[in-house]
Predict the 3D structure of the following.
Amino acid sequence: MVGIRFHGRGGQGAVVASKILAHAYFKQGLYVQAFPSFGMERKGAAVSAFVRLDSAPIAERGDIKNPAVVIVLDFTLLRKVDVTRCAKPDALILLNCRENENHNPVKDSFRVAGVDAVKIALQHGLGSKSAPIINTVILGAYARISGDLELANLLEAIATGVPVNQKQNMAAAEVAYHAVFSISGELNADKNRH
């Protein structure tokens, strides 16, 4: 079983991203769960969302304790939230950050990658400068480094999972697929099989 944890802020689309990702893996024949974790949060507050996937039916419920993948939609969360808390020792960490911010803010033996999801989202007219919509963008980057998610399945899941601007979201995800960069550790997709 593979656990994926998203960290974002309310309104950034972490919950929608988890549902799209689960749908993409479902299209590949896996059993999936996607669910949020929030309480009294408001727009802008830290939120988490989770995806659980397996080749067999999933009976487990509850938050994912030891994720193999952590996807961070807001780089500033690194100052407030321990995004690597209880992650597996060789977990894949994907950050939304500019390439000049890739000074590896994540310690330990994690494999860390980045993508400038804000820049790509704005280039495709997703959201505004003050509130870019990056959830589908960061999923495109994840598809590149995951080693097990087919881009075609992700794009199909985006087409059915976002209520507006499907073509722009799909195009932005595809650009991000080619724009992801390594920050630390081995990111060879063939070695990233979960």
Remarks:
- Strands lie at 2-9, 31-37, 46-54, 69-72, 92-96, 111-115, 181-184.
- The longest strand covers residues 46-54.
